[in-house]
Design brief:
- The complex is a heterodimer of chains A (333) and B (256).
- Chain A has 333 residues and is of the alpha/beta class.
- Chain A is built from 12 helices and 14 strands.
- The relative contact order of chain A is 0.12.
- The C terminus of chain A is likely disordered.
- Chain B is mostly helical and 256 residues long.
- In chain B, helix 2 runs antiparallel to helix 3 and helix 8 runs parallel beside helix 12.
- The model of chain B has no long low-confidence stretch (mean pLDDT 90).
- Classes of the chains: A alpha/beta (333), B mainly alpha (256).
- At the A-B interface, helix 2 and helix 3 of A face helix 1 and helix 5 of B.
């Protein structure tokens, strides 16, 4: 549905994106991850025909973005970084204007309007001026605008910014429900979001694609060791040395709380059983024992930091791993 | 409703929601009324003088004494007021980031430019229509020739349309509304002043070209009741040129 071949965009001497190539199949949801200024928005702007690429071709639904922009625009719903709303219009007036720009008239327009207002729960504010609405509502009006004409391709630049946690979950559900019938590209900073809604992730850094795969594959590929977190009730001073004696343990770091340790083991071996045995036989009081899987955040940091030539030290990596594991768990719960 | 009509309707709504139209309209009508009053009082004083000298009813020409002066003065008023009306058209879209939305909608840039221009032109023409009250009321008390007044109005409509197209162009250049207004003042004043240079150069080729480029001479013809095809061609072509340039400026955003 979307096919991007070697697109490059230069602003003077600055290269914003450099030979970016990727494609999105029909019904697929793709996440665009990257630090600020990585080139996510530039790529989206080229796909929506807002700007031309310096080199390369981008095609949407078989139409070239540079040669047939009108055909491309008809098939795209686009939510830019800032919701593109007119403050002097009411929600209904705004969406009517959007529909008319897209050539919708009469009953067609009214039913599309009601549908998108219903989908984004805007009924209570439909007659209010957009200028008086909160950031969250404006963001939802922006999304309603992108979905109004039920386009086969949706390009959403940070769709959940400014929404409260409940709304974030609703919008994610909405995006998930679009998968299958719509091709979606969304950019995000919130990594659990990518894991939650996307089938595929493209990580972009300094204008180049540094990784492209499913979230699970990415974390598996980049994992260099297994990590286990244990919490002990009464750890003696020499517990670290005793644990190190277990074959396969590479390193032990103190964790966040007292009694908590992060144990790094050889890749591919599950040492939980041995660790538990040592702890129990020594009567250290086992409170918690769990594996830490590499989250997308770690993958992201590893890839993007590596680009900057700043490999993480083992310790900070382990700490950030444990921090993020907790954050992810909280989000999941 | 076609996409262009949708743009026009949205712009009109934007104008009437903001205070711009009310303020600009009030000032425009006030100044028009005040100037008419002053010229009528002045014409009355001249009539009194003539009566005293001739000792009978004097024939005064309202077309010459009131309307020609009024239309001539309105040039300057239009130059100051119209850039205020046009300054928001594109600058505001850029500032509020709705420009990107407009550019990614399935509508051509020519339709966007045309829609915005027509919306502001409609507002200007309705304000101009309201000033028609002055000759209408004057007609009750006096006798004058309507034809030069109609050509004068045609002149004001064409001159205003040209000023508005310059304003649309200036607004497309920047995201700052004040800058947009000043750029259109700058362009219009420069074109006005070079007409002086044209007069100075007189009956030379350069003089003719400069006089033709400036709107002063063309407007004067219409105010004097003269409809010349070359003047109409001048207004039509320069208006289209300015709208074409606006189109190019908006389009150039794609390449930045």
């Amino acid at each position: 549905m979307i096919d991007v071949q070697n697109i490059t965009k230069r602003y003077g001497h600055h290269t914003a994106i450099d030979r970016v190539t990727f494609s999105v199949a029909k019904g697929e949801v793709l996440a665009f991850l990257g630090p600020n200024g990585a080139g996510k928005t530039t790529t989206m702007r080229i796909l929506t025909c807002f700007m031309h690429a310096t080199e390369g071709t981008a095609r949407v639904a078989g139409f070239d973005c540079a040669d047939q922009p009108l055909e491309v625009k008809r098939r795209i719903g686009y939510l830019p970084e800032t919701p593109p709303v007119y403050q002097e219009l009411t929600v209904t007036e705004y969406l009517t204007f959007v529909g008319r720009l897209r050539g919708m008239v009469g009953r067609n327009l009214t039913s599309a309007l009601d549908q998108s207002i219903g989908r984004l729960e805007l009924a209570s504010v439909r007659h209010r001026l957009i200028g008086n609405l909160s950031r969250g509502y404006r963001q939802r009006v922006g999304l309603a605008q992108a979905l109004l004409h039920d386009p086969p391709v949706l390009i959403l630049d940070e769709p959940t910014v400014g929404l409260d946690p409940k709304q974030i979950i609703e919008i994610r559900e909405l995006i998930k429900s679009l998968a299958g019938s719509h091709s979606v590209i969304l950019s995000t900073h919130i990594l659990p979001e990518a894991t939650a809604v996307c089938q595929r992730v493209v990580i972009i850094s300094e204008g180049r694609i540094v990784a492209e795969d499913t979230p699970e594959q990415l974390s598996a590929r980049l994992r260099q060791s297994e990590k286990i977190s244990i919490t002990l009730k009464a750890p003696p001073v020499d517990c670290e040395a005793k644990l190190r004696a277990i074959a396969g343990i590479l390193n032990i770091f103190p964790g966040q709380t007292t009694g908590n340790f992060i144990i790094e083991c050889v890749l591919g071996r599950d040492l939980r059983d041995e660790i538990a045995r040592v702890v129990v036989s020594n009567h250290w009081g086992l409170l918690e024992l769990r594996t830490i899987s590499m989250t997308l955040e770690d993958v992201f940091l590893q890839l993007t930091r590596h680009e900057e030539g700043m490999p993480q030290s083992a310790e900070t990596s382990a700490r950030s791993t444990s921090d993020r594991a907790e954050i992810t768990q909280e989000t999941a719960s | 409703m076609t996409p262009v009509q949708a743009v026009i309707a949205k712009e009109l709504r934007g104008y009437f929601v903001s205070p711009i139209v009310y303020v600009v309209g009030a000032v425009f009508l006030l100044i028009f009324g005040l100037l008419s009053y002053l010229y009528i009082v002045f014409a009355g004083a001249q009539a009194m003088q003539l009566m005293q000298m001739q000792g009978g009813m004097a024939q005064i020409n309202l077309n010459d004494l009131v309307f020609r002066n009024l239309f001539a003065s309105m040039r300057f008023i239009l130059l100051i007021i119209l850039p205020i009306l046009t300054m928001r058209l594109f600058a505001e879209e850029r500032k509020l980031r709705t420009f990107e939305f407009l550019m990614t909608s399935p509508i051509g840039i020519n339709e966007i430019v045309a829609g915005k221009f027509v919306s502001v032109l409609l507002i200007y023409l309705s304000l101009l229509g309201l000033t028609g009250l002055v000759p209408a009321v004057l007609m009750l008390f006096s006798d004058f020739d309507w034809n030069p007044i109609l050509t004068g109005y045609l002149g004001m409509a064409l001159l205003g349309a040209l000023f508005l197209s310059v304003g649309v162009f200036a607004s497309a250049l920047t995201e700052n509304q004040i800058v947009a207004a000043f750029v259109s003042f700058g362009i219009l004043l420069t074109v006005w002043l070079i007409s002086g240079l044209g007069t100075l150069l007189g009956d030379t080729t350069a003089g003719h070209i400069i006089s033709y480029v400036s709107f002063m001479e063309h407007y004067d013809h219409l105010v004097r009741g003269l409809i010349d095809t070359s003047d109409l061609v001048y207004f039509g072509s320069s208006l289209i040129l300015m709208l074409f340039l606006s189109h190019r400026v908006v389009e150039s955003a794609r390449w930045k």
